[in-house]
Design goal:
The protein is α+β, with helices and mostly antiparallel strands. It contains five helices and eleven strands. It has helices spanning 2-20, 28-32, 39-51, 61-100, 170-175, and strands spanning 106-110, 113-114, 122-128, 134-141, 147-152, 159-165, 179-186, 191-194, 197-208, 214-219, 223-226. The longest helix is centred in the middle third of the chain and has 40 residues, at 61-100.
Length: 234
């Protein structure tokens, strides 16, 4: 008799849940290994609360709806966190793929050593702290010190100024010799040296770190740079 009453009660509860559009189906295997409350656990607690409430002071409809809303909010936040985790992984893979496309290209790095690029040219940038009355770039052999070429840039405004050497001797281009670049500027108090930035070849790209979130570029003559630190490519 008791079992029959329980069965009728369960059927009546299920009918109410069906009308509300609430599914009570669960995966027993998942629940057995889960330490968190699932939807079925919440519904059982809610049912027990309804069954054991004071008949003279029943739970208000608003309280019931509020508890359902809280559970839905928590469930939604969990789904959102899972979505963010998936998005983070996709972005990491995208960064690695993007970095791989840079192989063979050149990246702007601070330094005074450069080599001829695929077009047989050398390019770089000077960052002038103020307007210069004159600016001169000298290109010498990094090993022998032989002066190959001098580029007179004249008066230049403050900020970034590009420079390049396009007519390199074929012997230098064929040997891909390292070229030392010296920059001399006059900022109003006589000539002084200024460190340039040059375009250097990207040799490889790899992910590093515990979660492989950082993509590193191996740059010729300069070693590793984080791809996020680079802003100019050729």
């Amino acid at each position: 008799m008791v079992n029959s009453v329980d069965a009728q009660t369960s059927a009546a509860q299920q009918a109410i849940f069906d009308k509300l559009g609430i599914s009570t189906a669960t995966d027993a295997a998942k629940r057995a290994t889960s330490d968190s409350l699932g939807q079925q656990d919440f519904l059982k607690l809610m049912t027990a609360q309804l069954q054991n409430q004071d008949p003279f002071a029943p739970m208000e409809n608003g309280d019931f709806i509020a508890q359902m809303a809280q559970f839905s909010t928590v469930s939604g936040i969990n789904d959102l966190n899972k979505g963010f985790s998936t998005l983070t992984e996709q972005m990491r893979q995208m960064r690695i793929a993007t970095a791989s496309n840079l192989l063979g290209h050149s990246v702007l790095v601070p330094g005074n050593t450069a080599r001829p690029d695929a077009e047989g040219e050398i390019h770089g940038v000077i960052d002038l702290p103020q307007a210069a009355a004159s600016a001169r770039v000298s290109f010498t052999d990094a090993e022998t010190g032989e002066l190959y070429h001098t580029e007179d840039l004249g008066a230049r405004p403050s900020g970034l100024t590009g420079f390049g050497w396009v007519n390199l001797p074929q012997s230098v281009v064929a040997a891909k010799r390292a070229i030392k670049i010296d920059v001399t500027v006059n900022l109003g108090e006589g000539e002084e040296s200024l460190g340039p930035s040059v375009y250097a070849k990207v040799l490889s790209a790899a992910a590093s770190g515990a979660n492989s979130d950082t993509v590193m570029l191996d740059v010729q003559d300069y070693g590793e740079f984080a791809v996020t630190d680079e802003t100019k490519f050729r």
